[in-house]
Write a structure and sequence with these properties.
By secondary structure, the chain is mostly helical. The chain contains nine helices and no strands.
């Protein structure tokens, strides 16, 4: 007869996510997780092979939470969809500082990082539609604006900045308009060269 465990995998992952929120991924130890559960570490290792497996599950759960922020931001119609994605990214950094650091500020040494335009497809389509530019230009436009958004989010996640949402809204509008004007001017200059 297999042993009965006090907790389900989902309960342990939820507790591990809470430990990570409080102490960062470095604080997610078997002892720390057991304390969060009010248990010994035996139930953890009855359902998971090791702490690396638990950490991988936390990473997956953090990505799911992040994607829910983006989805909600882009569908609640408070902001235009493209701006909403940037604001949701920054909001995630503000409300889930340790999970943001885990997803977007961890050391990527040894990780295989590939460009995935298909994952960006909804953003690229919005940019192409809104600005009337081709996919390659839309891709670089998105990267340039994302650098700006990521910079704000990083400074908020590390408590360097404490901007309110109204200021962030204005800053993103200014950056978007600046890049939009830059791409329009570049396009006009290219057309002139071809005359």
């Amino acid at each position: 007869m297999p042993p009965k465990f006090k907790f389900t995998r989902e309960q342990i992952i939820t507790a591990a996510l809470d430990v990570t929120r409080k102490n960062g991924i470095a604080g997610l130890t078997a002892r720390g997780l057991a304390a969060e559960l009010g248990s010994s570490s035996k139930p953890i290792f009855g359902l998971f092979q090791n702490m690396e497996e638990v950490q991988n599950e936390v990473l997956s759960a953090a990505y799911m939470l992040y994607h829910s922020y983006i989805q909600k931001g882009m569908t609640d119609e408070k902001y235009p969809p493209y701006k909403a994605s940037g604001i949701a990214y920054i909001q995630f950094a503000k409300e889930e500082k340790e999970l943001f650091k885990l997803l977007f500020m961890r050391d990527r040494t040894g990780e295989k990082i590939e460009e995935n335009r298909e994952e960006m497809r909804p953003m690229l389509n919005l940019i192409m539609k809104n600005l009337g530019i081709d996919e390659d230009k839309a891709y670089f436009f998105h990267l340039e604006l994302w650098l700006y958004v990521h910079g704000i989010a990083t400074m908020i996640a590390t408590n360097y900045l404490e901007w309110d949402i109204e200021f962030i809204d204005k800053a993103l509008t200014d950056a978007y308009q600046g890049l939009k004007n830059h791409y329009a001017a570049r396009s006009t200059n290219n057309e002139r060269k071809n005359l």
